[in-house]
Amino acid sequence: MHQFQSTNSNLYGENRKAEIKNHNLPILNYLYHGDETTEIHCVMTKTSGFADVWCPVRKRQVQEFRLDFDHIRQKHDVYRKAVGISVDKTEAPSSIFRGYKLDEPRYKDKLIEMMCCWPICTEYHGYKSTSSQYGDVVLKDYPKEAWPWHLKSKKNFNAVCKRFGLELDYKWFIDSLNNVDSPCIPTEYRRLLRRRNFDALFVVEGLELAA
Predict the structure, then answer these.
(1) Which of 78, 121, 157, 203 fits a 20 to 30 Å CA distance from 65?
(2) Residue 76 CB coordination number (10 Å)
(3) Domain limits of the chain?
(4) Predicted local distance difference test score (pLDDT) of residue 42
């Protein structure tokens, strides 16, 4: 399977980014495709996330990553008539991917944000962005076979939640992804975590967090 290489082995920051991305790859393979050993690919076109391309400067083949982690929900901006607003975005997914180890308990909100995304090739991402200029985009606008693995069934979703210690309700999550007016999911999760300090059991719209 492909691995990320540091863009500059002499720089700690670049080495660290490559290390974290390689740590997160199996997690996202499982999340989006149901198997850590299935190489990450576009859920729409099924094309590989990696491509070997000729670099005219280095005079050799180099590996490039050609997927975007795209927030599924896009709210139409009726005023600017521009690309839709990512409802569940609190941070760029690419920053999350290279900046946080997603299986660490303190970063559950980052993992949840990646659960609001799917991996799509840059070309298809452009098509989706163009579509969002004309109206809202939600999960149910796409055929279920294109949905990432963790969203395809309650069984898959619950398996992810059990593995990573997430207290989320499948119906609530899917309903949220199908309604652009529902609150930002990662923000709502953090809000409920704060409320947990005051309530022994807090329940909102199917999302439960036990103290």
Answers:
(1) 157
(2) 19
(3) 12-166
(4) 96
